[in-house]
Write a structure and sequence with these properties.
By secondary structure, this protein is α/β, with parallel strands linked by helices. The protein is 34% helix and 19% strand. Helix 3 links the parallel strand 3 and strand 4. Helix 8 crosses helix 10.
Length: 259
């Protein structure tokens, strides 16, 4: 079988730079034998380097049937699951822990990270290539202009590292944006010190009107005039709060809702 044709509806941009592929493969930085799931291997440019690492027990998940056929022909020892990662029951395939890697389709990268978060106790690390703008946003510290919903929610459970930038020219076809490789490493927080679902709601509500102070942006959750808003904390805009401050804020909202 020849080359697989990139499909726009799947967001496919095939990596063609072997040096970049090798750097991505090495970005997991494993110290022991580990199950690894590669998302969207395409024609296996990254896959070939992952298979060479003796510490990686590799499985790949690919939605594109043409790519699956190509992978089965060129990498007969690779276990390929033809499925949509976003719809997979990960515990059915990986009863233990596993890491995730890939050149992720940019149109679903955030959904991939939220699924990772839903399985955070099973996924100690993730490394992959995404749109540069999204990578910067996730890794941004509190106080920066790009700090937002993804930054807070992901940083609550993972250490985020922006590793390196990748130019459009190393892809076929080249995307219209720059790319970046990012790494998530699970921190030691087994459960944040507040209601997890309310935490996400508070973060999303606050940043939905990020130019407003918390006193104004949180009105959909707690009505204006509530005594909670007397605290100077609510004079701040959401980008000023780090993860710990958002946890404290969530507790305050929970108390207000229960009174």
């Amino acid at each position: 079988m020849g080359q697989v044709k990139a499909k726009k509806y799947l967001g496919q941009h095939f990596l063609k730079d072997m040096g970049v592929a090798q750097r991505i493969a090495e970005s997991l930085a494993l110290e022991e034998k580990t199950a690894v799931l590669e998302i969207g291997p395409g024609m296996g440019v990254l896959t070939q380097f992952l298979l060479q690492d003796p510490l990686i027990d590799l499985t790949a998940v690919e939605l594109d049937g043409e790519s699956v056929t190509y992978l089965n022909e060129h990498y007969p020892n690779l276990h390929v699951i033809e499925a949509d990662f976003l719809k997979m029951d990960l515990k059915a395939y990986f009863p233990g822990t596993f890491c995730v890697i890939g050149n992720f389709p940019y149109n679903i990268s955030s959904q991939i990270f939220f699924k990772m978060l839903d399985n955070k106790d099973s996924i100690p690390c993730l490394a992959g290539m995404i749109q540069k703008e999204v990578a910067e946003r996730i890794a941004a510290p509190a106080g920066s202009k790009t700090y937002g919903i993804l930054s807070v929610i992901m940083q609550a459970y993972y250490k985020i590292e922006y590793l390196f930038t990748v130019s459009p020219q190393v892809f076929d076809p080249p995307p219209k944006v720059q790319s970046a490789v990012i790494r998530f490493t699970r921190n030691d927080v087994s459960q944040i010190d507040c209601d997890d679902q309310l935490f996400k709601t508070v973060v999303k509500t606050a940043f939905n009107q990020r130019r407003k102070t918390l006193r104004n942006s949180l009105k959909p959750l707690v009505e204006s005039g509530h005594p909670m808003y007397a605290d100077p904390l609510f004079d701040l805009r959401p980008e000023r709060l780090d993860v710990a401050a958002f946890i404290d804020l969530t507790k305050r909202v929970a108390a207000a809702l229960n009174n």
